[in-house]
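Recall the central idea of this unit: under ordinary conditions, the amino acid sequence of a chain determines the structure it adopts. In this exercise we apply that idea directly, starting from the sequence alone.
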Amino acid sequence: MRTAVERTEPLVRGAGAEYRRPVEVEPASGEGWSWVPLGETAEEREALARLLSGERWPYHGVERPEAEAIRAAFDEGAYHGNETRTFWIEDAAGAKAGFIKIMDAQDPTVLFDLRIREAYRRQGAARATLGWLADCVFRELPSAIRIEGHTRIDNAGMQAAFRGTLFVREGYYRQSWPQGGQLYDSLGYGLLRSDWERGEATPVPAELR
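Accordingly, the structure predicted from this sequence is:
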């Protein structure tokens, strides 16, 4: 079942960007989740610092970031701007289940950072957010022709989330993910605007898989 969720309109206007009141839009998939813009207030800054520093993120470069480092990054514009948009992922009760940061928003290839809190993992939030991300990017960013994402080889949950969408696994990168003094292999996924428009994924040629 497709449900209405909130977004901002427009995500991008001209060369700059501005957030406006939430409007209704259908997500690409999922039920019971909503995506709300991260504000630029002190309260939002502290909420983000609490969320990131209060969780362990085993498949991200810094597994347990410091709250002060997050505050500093927020103040320096790491979560807002022409190239970056950040949204809370909220459950049906309005609790914060995680966040997604859209990066390189003005480029043909858009990247993202998706984080789901431990208590909400394996409940479909990541897959639903990937579907919403595709709708958001391709409807609101006319210069975007593809969305690209990467995950560690041992992150089975994120790989399952990608498989449940139109994203296609495009690459296998050996010893490409340094973390905790180790080098991990990683996987690259991509979603084309043309696939999103048709509602059907274009597979990588069989000889290159």
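Helices lie at 42-53, 67-75, 125-140, 156-163, 193-198.
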